Amino acid sequence: MSIGRCAWPVLARSFYARPTLEVARELLGHVLVCRTPDGLASGVIVEAEAYVGQDDPACHAAPGPTPRNEPLYGPPGRAYVYFNYGMHYLVNAVTERAGYPAAVLIRALDPIDGVSLMQDRRGRRRDGAARGLHDLCRGPGNLTRAMGIGPELNRADLTKAERTFAGLWIEDRGLAAGRIVWTPRIGIRVGTDRSWRCCVAGHPAVSGRNT
Q: Which of 99, 143, 155, 168 lies most in the core, judged by the most C-beta atoms within 10 Å?
C-alpha cells in the first residue's frame, strides 16, 4: 500500500482528549507523519514529554494565556509548534479538554519514510547505511528539521491526514512500542522534579538517558 493513500488509521480527537500523561505514554509506538511540498517523511515516536496546566512551571501556559501559547488552550488533537531559544522549532500535540492548557512534546522518532529527504534536511550524506539514521530525529530540534516541521504547521489538525498539500498527523500502524520508562523531563530549567518524560527503553533514537 502507498503511504500517500493514507492506508493507516489516523488517531482520532478522542485519543488526545484525555489526561496528558496517558496520551504521552500511548503516543509511543505511533507514527508522526509530515507532508510538505518537498515530500513525505515519517517516524515512530519513541520519546515524549508531558506539560500540564498553568501550575506546571515548565509549561508555556504558566504565565497565563498569551498570543504565543494560545494553541495550548484550543481543542485537543492540534499541533503546537513554537520557536525555541532562537534556534529551532519544537512540535507538541495538544491534549485534555479545550480551555485547559496541556500538551505532549514529541522529542524523538525512529525514521521510517523519507529517510533520504531527512538526510538532505539535516545535511547528511545518503549512503543507504542504517548506521547514523537513528540520530536524524534524536531530540526535538533535530526532529523538526528532519521532518520539515515549521511555523506554518502551528495549529495543524493532527487528526486529518493530508493527501495532497502540507499536513501533519499521527497514525496507528499497529507497532508495539516495547518497554517504556518514565524519567524527569530534560532540557528545561524548572519543573525538572516531575517524571513526565517517557521513552522506549534502550532505543538508540532516544535523546538523553533512556534506561
A: 143
CA pair distance 131, 209, nearest whole angstrom: 20
CATH number for the domain including 150?
3.10.300.10
The rounded distance, in Å, linking the Cα atoms of 140 and 160 is 22
Please give the grid coordinates belonging to residue 183: 524519567
Rounded to two decimals, what is the model's pTM?
0.93
In a domain, 173, yes or no: yes
Q: Are 158 and 178 in contact (CB under 8 A)?
A: no
Q: Is residue 26 part of a domain?
A: yes
Q: Is 17 among the domain residues?
A: yes
Domain containing 191 equals 3-200
Q: Cβ atoms within 10 A of the Cβ of 124, count?
A: 16
